[in-house]
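Deviation from plan, reported transparently: nicotinamide-adenine-dinucleotide complex.
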Amino acid sequence: MSTTSNQGPVAFIGLGNMGGPMAANLVAAGRQVTGFDVGQEACDKARAAGVDVKGSAAEAVQGAAAVVTMLPNGALLLGVYDEVLPAAAPGTLFVDCSTVAVSDARTAADLAVAAGHRAADAPVSGGVGGAEAGTLTFMLGCDDALVEEATALLDPMAGRVVHCGASGAGQAAKICNNMVLGASMIAISEAFVLGEKLGLTHQAFFDVASTASGQCWALTTNCPVPGPVPTSPANRDWRPGFAGALMAKDLGLARRAVEESGTDAAVGTLAEELYRRFADEGGAGLDFSAIVNTIRERSAAAAE
Ligand code: NAD
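Because the crystal trials were delayed, the predicted structure below was used instead.
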C-alpha cells in the first residue's frame, strides 16, 4: 500500500454538517487534521473535535499529504481548488467528497493533476448520521493506481468504499442512484394517493406491493405514509431523513448530466421538475417523502 497520504496530515476543507463529523472521525482514528471553513460555528465545532483550524484554505493545505473537500456545490469546489492547488506540496492526494456535477468533478481532477497532484472524486451516501457514525458509503472515481491509497484515507469515515471507475464515475453513480430514488418515491407516492381514492388502505397496498413487483426502498424503508414502516420519516411529521432540498439538488445535477450527455430520460427529467417545485413551495426542509402530501393536495384541488 502507498503510505504517501496515509501517514502525513490531512487537510479538511468544508467542516459543515457532513464535513465536521467526517473530520472528527479522522482525528479519532489518530490522524493529524488541519481544517478550514468560512463559517465560524463550523470552525468552533471542528476545533472542539480536535481539528487544527487555520485562517484560510491555503494555510490548511500547507504540509498536508492529503486534502479532503466537503463543500456545498461545484462552483465553490472549483474556487477552493484555485486557491489551494498552488499552495499544496507536489503529489498531494486531493479527494473531493462533495456532491457536484460529473463535469465539475472531472474539471476539478484535471486541474489538480495539471498542478502536479493526484485526484479522486468520492461523493457519499448515508447522510449526517452516517458521517457521525463513520459508516458512509463512498463512491470512488479515480485511476486504479489510486484506489488502495484513497480507500485507506477514507476508511475511518466509511462503512464501504466502492470504486466506480475513472475520474467522475463516483459522481455518476451517485446521481444515477438518486435519479432512481426520486422517480421511485414519486411513483410510490402517486400509488398511495390513487389507492386512497379507490378505497384501498395504506396497509393493504403496502402488504401487497412490498412483496410484489412494486417493491423498492422508497416503499419498504422510507415509506411516505405513516404506519406501515414505523421507522420511516412519515411517522415523525416527515422530519428528514433526506431533505427535499438535497433531493432537488441531486436531481438538478442528474438533469444537467442527462442534457450534457443527450440521454432520453423523460421520467428523471420530470422527477427533477416535481422535486424543484416541491422544494420551492415549502418542502426544502422536509424529508423528500413528504412529496406524497403535495400529490394528495394537488389531487384534491384537481377533483374540485
Ligand atoms: P453544509 O452546508 O452543512 O456544509 C458545507 C460547508 O462548507 C459549510 O460549513 C460552509 O460554510 C462551507 N464552505 C462553503 N464555502 C466554503 C469555502 N469557500 N471554503 C471553506 N468552506 C466553505 O452542507 P453538508 O450537508 O455538509 O453537505 C456538504 C456536501 O455533502 C454537499 O455537496 C451535499 O450535497 C453533500 N451531501 C450531503 C448529505 C447530507 O445529508 N447533508 C448527504 C450526502 C451528500
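The radius of gyration is 21 Å. We consider this an acceptable substitute for the interim report.
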